[in-house]
Input
Amino acid sequence: MGSKNKLKRFRENETFSNVVQPTREEIVGGEFPLKGKWAKDFFKNDLPIVLELGCGKGEYCIGLSKMFPEKNFLGVDIKGARFWRGAKTALEEDNRRVGFLRTQIELVDQIFAINEIDEIWITFPDPQIKFKRAKHRLTNPDFLKKYEKILKPKGIVNLKTDSEFLHGYTLGLLEHLDYEILHSNHDIYKNEYSPKEIVDIQTFYEKQYLEKKKPITYIRFRIN
Output
């Protein structure tokens, strides 16, 4: 994508009612007004909130919102030019249960209050295979602690990835931490029991992986 097109999307995002773009200073300074008030002040309802971390173009937020009309969905990504597509689609469809937040994922525990979130989806994150990048893996112990803070008791986390490495790393970690693994699958499209929400929604990147015959893995677990 050219820089001109990116700038155009950034400008459009600023006009979208379903996009929130706080500064890092606002968040870490404790001045972010939506913390603890996302349902009431942003979605303007009292429905449960589901996060998609690293939401990309927002396909999962849009898709899940159509499957689960009783929930709100919020996509989180630092790349606003990507989620522009999802935000625009949600507005065009007058889907008020979908929103997007531009920020670093490591700040989630400062953006959401304790027990404010019902469920988390992590879709095709960078597996950060090199050891020195382990601190950036979205399922490492530090991130799991952040999710534990913002999720309601027994909250659910979903990981969908093409990375066998990340799948195995996460499974091993969950077993070590004694988290409850609800579902684990090494190839969702070869399993007739795969939940509808993991096979009926495909992201832009997932379609590319499938063209290369890469198996798509999935883990659903409960934060204790």
Remarks:
- The radius of gyration is 17 Å.
- The domain at 37-222 is CATH 3.40.50.150 (Rossmann fold).
- DSSP finds ten helices and eight strands in the chain.
